[in-house]
Structure formats: structure tokens, C-alpha cells
Amino acid sequence: ARPFPWEPEARAVGAPRAATAGSDPRARRALSGPGMFADRTAPGADVQSLWRSARSARCEAKTCQTGKISTAEAAAQSHTARDAAVQTEQSKDPVQDFQQEVQVDYSGLLSFLQRVEDVVIKELNKNWKSHAFDGFEVNWTDQDETVLCLHTLSYPEAQDHNLQVTSVSWNATGSVIACSYGRLDNGDWSTEKSYVCTWNLDRRGLNPQHPDLVVDVPSSVMCLAFHPSQPSLIAGGLFSGELVVWDTSRTEDPVIWRTGMTDDTHTDPVYQVNWLPDTKHRNHARLLSVATDGKILVWREERDGRLALAEGFAIVAQQIPRSTRLKKVAWGEAAVGVTSLSFSHFDPGVFVVGVEGGYSLRCSTAAQSPALPRPGGSVPLRAPAELAFSPHAGPVYSVSCSPFHRQSCFLLPPSPRNLFLSCGTDGQVHLHSMLQTQPLFALQLSKKYLFCICWSPVRPLVFAAASGEGVHLFDLARSTQKPTVSLKQSLSHCPVYCLEFNTKHTRLLAAGDAAGTVKVWQLSSDFTEQGPREMSHLEQLASEIMD
């Protein structure tokens, strides 16, 4: 049987060719007859691929996916630790060792010292008498020469009524600042409502336009003063002449004492209040008030919430002592309204007042001369004035005694303990000694009014002044002719009416202006770090100016 029907049948060479159907009609008939075709099943064919085997032998994989990338983790830290010293080993040869014993020629050293002894002693004596390094102090800390504004505080409701900041005061801890609102230029003061506001600068979430406490006052508040040891007590003087003491820890009714309107009450606006220690009762304090009616009154607290008059003084024109160095003026016509007061820090019985007539007066609480009779009053008033100083060309608005003094009582004038500053509407600052009428120097600071002046509590040569142009800081060690720094309180160049140093946080200075804002300035270290012999410098400066 042939494997495939289409393959020709094999025959032997030379064998006769078989007849085909095409050539033999009989054959064609035989093929067309029945029985020529039958069903047959042939086995499948298996054809091996030579192309695949050849590719496999050459390891040529043809796929689209890349092969798997093998990874392994290797730590950089070594398994063992070892210390290695960088110090060189000690030399085995002691001669070459750096720490070998030094051979000193003592006889040669002695001969050298004997030769230069006279020259060295001469130079040491010369240096000992030299003042080239007076006032020099090594300071290894970084110096901050800028003055920054830390806070700008205001009460929008007071500003809406065009009220001005008339006074500022720090409490006993130095963390709370209070301000009073009123008006110093015009308006119906007697009926206009005002406010007393406080902010705690240490409180979290301080809102500069939302005071921690707001006290409504029926009359304009002209001045404020916190109690020196009780942080919640604050006294205020009103335009009506009254005195009021508030307790800021009481939110319902903070008023605890007041003078009321009596025959003893001031008849003019109160421009300054001071707390005084009560020598008879240690736990109590007394209040001192000054007003343009010429009275200086001392009040004591009563149990019924009333302030009662304890003693008083009056500045009367006819009883002001006259000085031969002053120009002759009509004393009977001079104004005697008191605008400011400052106590001496070395003698609590001595104080200086500024009056509307332009004079500064040295006064004494020990004065016994009665003042000229005045109608009414439960306590007789005394005349305290002892010395009149050379006047300003306008009313005196502020005086400030130097808080520094020496312990020795044998110092010759002018001593720093006898110095005080004054300023007024003439734009001048006068530095005075309490022992002479003429000023040690007069500085024309501004062409506008000077409203307040305050001596630094930590540096004898530094003071601040509030003017119609802003805040001025002076360092007399640098210059006696111009301010060291001038600060613009606002863009509108509104006048600054009041300022006060913080005695606890000595780098803080608060100032209130006519726009109704209080700015808390952070002073640079130049204004708060006292140099050596600074008090001697002030004394020497005063002596040179006087000579």
C-alpha cells in the first residue's frame, strides 16, 4: 500500500509502464465503475521544528517582559566597633619631648628686671593717673541697638468718641498696663463719659483692641497711678476734681474709695496722683493729689469707702519765695495752678512742683507756715514752697526727680541726688540742681509742647520726653544737645501726652497719644545697661556745665 494516494507508485527500472486511464479506454471504464474508492484513515504526520531547536541552543529568548531583577540588602554599619585615639604616643626619647622641663637662667632674669625696674614703675604711675579708659566696660553679650514697638493698644469705643490717652501706669508686677481716656484740648469735659482700660501683656491671646478690663467713668480721667505694692489697686484723678480708687479684681463694682464732692475736694481738674506710704499704718497707704486750683492734698482711706482729707498744702502767689537771680515779676498776678509733682528719692520730705506760671518750686512737707485763708475746708492748708527756680517761657507740664543718689551725705553740690528735670510748653528741657535757681542746662528739644518727662529707673544718664512730635530718648553720655533716638508714635504725627518706664521690666516704655493709642516700646540694651562710673559722669557733667 502507498503511504499517500498522490505519490506515484515505485517501479523497477526497465519494467513496463502500466497503462493509464487516459490511454486505455478499458481502464477508464474500470475506474469509473463501482468499488474503485473506499474510506481509509491515514495516520497523522509529526513535523519537528528546526527553528525552535536552533534558537534554544543559542539561548535567545524573545519576549516583551524583562526578567526579574534580583535585589539584596547590605548594611553599612560594621558588625564590630573599635576606638582609635588621635593623640600621638609619648616620645620614647625624653630629650625630644615637648613637655620637657624648661631651663631658666635666673641670674639673667634678675639682671634684666633690675635694669627695667625704674622704667616700668614710671609707666605704671603714668597709667594709674590716666583717664583714658574711664567708663570702659567689657560686655560679652550681643548688643541690641534698636527700639521696637511690641504692642499698639487701643479701645475702639473711646476712639469713636475722639477721646485721647491722658495717662498711663504700670502695676506692681510690671505685667499690666493701664490707661485713662479723656480730652486735653477741648470739649465738654464735665459731662463727657470716659474710660479706664487695662491690658495684661503676659496673658495668652492678648487682643490689643480688647482690654481685659474697661471701667466707665462719668467724668474725664486726667491721671492714673497704680498702687506700689498691691497690683489690683489703681487711683485716678478726674476733671471734676474728685479722686477715685478702683480694684481691678472686682468686675461688678470696682470702685472701693472716692472723695465725693465736698468742701475739701479740688475745684479744678486733678492732673496728678501719687501713692504715699502711711507712716502710722504700715498696711495702709495715702493718696496725694495736685490740681490747677493750687492745692496739694493728702487723703486717707476710711472704712465706709470714703477718702478723707488728712493734710494739705496750697501754692499762693504772695507766699512764693523771691530770688535775687530771677527777674522781677508781678508775683500777685502769676498763676499758681499746680500741674505736676515729683518727690525727691533721697529725702521723702522734699518735692518739686511745676506750676502754670512757668516756675518749678522746691517744697517741703515739714513746712508749718499757714497758707492764706481759703473759704471752707476741714483741714488748714500750709504753704510748702521754699525755692523758685528759673522759669520756662510757658506753663510747666512735668517734673521728674533723679532716682539715683549716693549714700554719702558729704557730697558737694551738684550731686546726682539733687537733680531734677522739667519741661513745658516752650519746648525746652531744663536740668536743675535743687540747690541753685539757674538750670544746669536748657535744651530746646522741640518747637511744639513738651507734655511729659521721665527719668530712667536704671540709668542715671537716660531720660525720656513726650512731645507734640513723638517720644524722645536721651543719653547724656552721648550728647547733651540732641536726643539719641526719636520715635514716631503714629503716622499722623499726633502729640504724645504721657509716658512711663516699667520699673520691673526695665526695657519697656509705655506712651499714650492724642489718637487714643498706647504703644509699648522695647528699649535697646544701650538704654538699660548702666556703665561703670555713670553717676560720677553725671556729677562731672553737671559740674562742668555749672562752671
Automatic annotation (TrEMBL):
InterPro entries: Dynein_IC, WD40/YVTN_repeat-like_dom_sf, WD40_repeat_dom_sf, WD40_rpt
Subcellular location as annotated: Cytoplasm
Comp. bias intervals (Low complexity): 11-22
Organism: Chloropsis hardwickii
Keyword Metal-binding part of the UniProt annotation: no
MF-aspect GO terms: dynein heavy chain binding; dynein light chain binding
Stretch list, region Disordered: 1-44
Name of this chain's protein: WDR34 protein
Domain of life per record: Eukaryota
GO cellular component, one term: cytoplasmic dynein complex
Keyword annotations of the record: Cytoplasm, Repeat, WD repeat
Matching SUPFAM superfamilies: WD40 repeat-like
Classification of source organism: Eukaryota, Metazoa, Chordata, Craniata, Vertebrata
Gene: Wdr34
Main location as per UniProt: cytoplasm
Gene Ontology terms describing biological process: intraciliary transport
